[in-house]
Amino acid sequence: MSILDPHPLLNNLLYSTQQRAPPSNTSKAASPRTSDSDSDSDSDEPPVNSSFPLAASSESETDEKPKFLDALANLCIHEGRRQETALSLTLTSDERRVILCIAQSTDVSDRVVGFLLDLWQRLGEIAEMDQDNWANSQHPGKTPSVKTNGDTLQKERETRIAILRHCHLKVIWRVLKRAKDFDKFFFSWKEKDHSSEDPAMVDTLINVFVSFRAVFVHITSLVSSAMDEAYFDEFDRVLRELHAFSDPLLNGDAELLASWSEDYGFAKRGEGHLLYKFLKKCVSVYDHADKVLGLAFSSRFSFMLSMDLHIKRIPSTQRNVASKFGCWKEYVGSVFTAGGAAQDKLFFRTADIEAKHALFVDKTLPNGTQQITRSTDEMVVESAITGPVHCECLILAHHHRDLIRQSAVTESGAETNTPPVDYIGCSKPPCYGCDRYFNAYSLVSKDKPYPFHFLTRGSNKRVIRPFVMPVLEDGDSEQYIQKVFFEVLGRDLAEFHFSVGTLNRRKQSP
């Protein structure tokens, strides 16, 4: 294993930094968040403050394609939790085909492919109706008929129900996850006097609770295992009502909502965002549906819906990677050196501390490795972990392999030589490792004649392990990217120590 291997750095050093109490002169909120597994973060959550400097999101707030791709990736998820999706979009040069490359945390199922094809057809029908309405309105004396408008609205509703059919298990899981907590919160809240608070917020919260109970009763009162059309019609009605009431609450007084969450037991002190997150997740399927339906009414992009859609499934991939280095002191020293730290007494003391903590973090790795109790001076036997390549990295690697090889393929179906648009839609914000890998890839692309580089939405800044790099099947590029990736991570960890005074910067030579 090379001393520049980033896997031990991500899976041990950066993770172990977050397992101990932060230094006294920094707040816990300023540290990167960590997770052993997928978080249930929704795509609309804002990034969390972090002392690890991450690049700002490159997504334009006015760009419809990124919002559409992120929303579509979310709607592909049909399981309750621990499922992720990433996808890319290619418009072929002949303007006849649209290709969606999709990767999920497990192999993409026929159900997901069928859902995408059906949704694309429905969106195309809505776009055609909308264009007919617009064309009629341009002729003097002609206006869109009530019947035509009614047909469009009916088709929209049918599309929303089709989306709900696909995503209903995810919605049910999110509603049931903290339904009891929401009940306890509301009954505690209503016992208090709120006459001095914003009456609109008070009334809205009452309406939200009533509509939430209607959703809860509907999904828990199913006598038969068959979910027929009537079930989904009613599910759509009650969930749409909850969405309508939640919108003004979630966009209202954020401080008041946070204080209610803390004062009446839905969140611990300092975690007042939890009520917001819970309600947001319960209705998020309609937020994502709105963004996807917006494509049918877009003057810029609705033309895509008249093209044939082809789906290319990217298989999930597991890789064995090293989890720890032969001598942690040597490895940590190389990390700090890559990050620009001065090799003084502070350097070696902090390296010793980091090496010590890295030895103990293996006790919770998924492969069941035991806690290590040897001295940090001892040589540690190298071990490997098996981890999945994250979905957005699978998409990046797929297009890298195709376009770097520049192999001429027959232009048909899901095969094309046309580069994709430079944005990968993600069902969840990329983790810290993915964000920095994309950053390293972008830096390398400045030195190599790559035909593209990809953007994603802002990272959630979670250190999620195990993290494994994708296979690019391009040895020179892969080694170069690995080197730059290691340096990027090293700078981040060094910057963290610079900010708390546990490392000094190396003086630049004149």
Overview of the molecule:
With 510 residues, this protein is of the alpha/beta class. Among the domains are: 141-303, no CATH class; 319-386, no CATH class. The protein contains 14 helices and eight strands. It has helices at residues 6-17, 64-75, 110-137, 146-177, 179-190, 199-220, 229-250, 254-263, 274-293, 328-338, 345-360, 391-405, 432-445, 475-500; strands spanning 33-35, 85-91, 97-104, 308-314, 318-322, 384-388, 425-426, 462-464. The strands form three sheets. A four-stranded mixed β-sheet has the order 4-3-2-7. A two-stranded parallel ribbon has the order 1-8. Strands 5-6 form a two-stranded antiparallel ribbon. A hairpin with a 5-residue loop joins strand 2 and strand 3 (97-104). The longest helix is centred in the N-terminal third of the chain and has 32 residues, at 146-177. The radius of gyration is 25 Å and the shape is globular. Mean pLDDT is 81; it is low at 21-62 and 364-381.
Short description:
By secondary structure, the chain is of the alpha/beta class. The chain contains 14 helices and eight strands. 49% of the residues lie in helices and 8% in strands.
How much of the sequence lies in strands comes to 5-15%
Estimate percent helicity. 40-55%
* Gross morphology: globular
| H/E element sequence | HEHEEHHHHHHHEEHHEHEHEH
Poorly predicted sequence stretches spanning 5 or more consecutive residues: 21-62, 364-381
Largest sheet: 4 strands, mixed
Spatial extent as radius of gyration: 25 Å
The averaged pLDDT comes out at: 81
What is the count of β-strands?
8
Strand order of the largest sheet: 4-3-2-7
Main structural class:
alpha/beta
